[in-house]
Specification:
The protein is of the alpha/beta class and 394 residues long. The chain is built from 13 helices and 15 strands. It has a seven-stranded mixed sheet, sandwiched between helices. A four-stranded mixed sheet has the order 1-2-3-13. A four-stranded antiparallel sheet has the order 11-12-15-14, covered by helices on one side. Helix 12 crosses helix 13. It is globular and about 60 Å long. The structure holds pyridoxal-5'-phosphate (PLP).
């Protein structure tokens, strides 16, 4: 039998500490490894497989589109991208769409859009204020926007035009705003940075400040969007509307796609100013349309609210039982569990041994972000495994 993990060591750039499991198949909220072992997947491709693995509507849309038209240049009209754009716009507060291939690429495009807005309306303002502890992607520009030293230091000097300020601190944004500021860019809830929820009025205060100063508010909903927080988009829970929003992860239920959405007034690109060879290709768009339509038609976001509360309630129960759990936080199906010591890797391994995949968010915290289609039964199963894993550690 081929030793796949040995092949990785030999041929693959070592950019990630992999978990020693080779996954070969997935269905719903479950995956199987090359030894036939089954796992309940509470990682979901890092909050990507919104409808679970290989959902029927996604697989059928892909198969049908693969037989029909996979890729053309964006100089031609293609129907799947226009149907997707219409569905997106009809279900959010934004007016125009640009389609990309990933989250980082969508965010890069959003920053380019904000700089063009600055040139058109703000006397050449180009700086973007983003938050410490944020995560906006791995391109050089997005590393500069990402307010985490560990992502920035290996690549200095970073592109100019990004200011990182404290999250959940409106005064920090006010103090950093100058004539050069074209936009404030934030995750409504910081995902990779720790599942950090802001105070309820923070985003409203940022929105008011941007309005007062005539600056754009870009919301990076790459992790929080497409139902994960229990509403189709997280901004709905904070009573605000962004000028620009980016999406990726859950949009294609596993098929790579990213999107920039903007209000008409902010959609200032003219032909030739932005583009992509693969962005918006019919194959990815067919998968994203099928995903989004299923999520909307079946009120998956509403179900996420309920099952998310059930999950958080169960985790709170474990917190009562194990003193070393210091906090359970999150909303919908984006949840973190924090410990009083750096034990996340051991808990992850103990879960893995018992057939549950979880994500190590930080040395002292785990993140749970299962497919949005799970039910209370799967939550009970995960809680049972977590309980056994936690009791095996102490
Ligand atoms: C909020 C947020 N923005 C951007 C990204 C980058 O997306 P991608 O990995 O698709 O480039 C991520 C990925 O984790 C993310 O969570």
């Amino acid at each position: 039998m081929t030793n796949w993990q040995e092949l990785e060591r030999k041929y693959f750039m070592h950019t990630v500490e992999r978990i020693p499991v080779t996954l070969v198949r997935g269905e719903g909220a479950r995956v199987w490894d090359d030894n036939g072992r089954e796992y309940l997947d509470f990682v979901a491709g890092w909050a990507v497989n919104s409808l679970g693995h290989c959902h029927r509507v996604v697989a059928e849309a892909l198969a049908e589109q693969a037989r029909t038209l996979i890729q053309t240049s964006n100089q031609y009209y293609t129907i799947p991208q226009l149907r997707l754009a219409e569905l997106l716009v009809n279900n959010c507060c934004l007016d125009k769409v640009f389609l990309a291939n990933s989250g980082a690429e969508a965010n890069e495009g959003a920053v380019k859009l904000a700089r063009r807005y600055g040139q058109c309306h703000l006397d050449g303002a180009y700086e973007v204020i983003s938050a410490l502890g944020s995560f906006h992607g791995r391109t050089l520009g997005m590393v500069a926007a990402t307010g985490q030293a560990k992502h920035q230091q290996p690549y200095s000097p970073l592109p100019a035009g990004f200011i990182n300020v404290a999250y959940n601190d409106i005064e920090a944004i006010k103090a950093a705003t100058t004539d050069k500021t074209c936009a404030v860019m934030l995750e409504p809830v910081q995902g990779e940075g720790g599942v950090n929820l802001p105070d309820d009025n923070y985003l409203k205060m940022v929105r008011d400040w941007c309005d007062q100063k005539g600056r754009l508010l870009i919301l990076d909903e790459i992790q929080t969007g497409i139902g994960r927080m229990g509403t189709l988009f997280a901004y709905e829970q904070y009573g605000i509307e962004p000028d620009v929003m980016t999406l990726a992860k859950g949009l294609g239920s596993g098929v790579p796609i990213g999107a920039i959405l903007a209000k008409d007034g902010a959609a200032v690109f003219v032909p030739g100013e932005h583009g992509s060879t693969f962005g918006g290709n019919p194959l990815a768009c067919a998968a994203a349309y099928a995903t989004l339509k299923f999520i909307i038609d079946n009120d998956i976001a509403g179900k996420v609210r309920e099952v998310g509360q059930y999950l958080i309630g169960g985790l709170e129960g474990l917190k009562q039982k194990y003193q070393f759990i210091t906090e359970v936080r999150g909303r919908g199906l984006l949840v973190a569990m924090e410990f009083n010591s750096e034990m996340a890797a051991s808990v992850l391994t103990a879960c893995l041994d018992r057939g549950l995949l979880v994500n190590r968010l930080k040395p002292n915290a785990l993140r749970l972000m299962p497919p949005l289609i799970i039910g209370n039964g799967e939550v009970d199963e995960a809680l049972g495994i977590l309980d056994k894993a936690l009791s095996s550690i102490v």
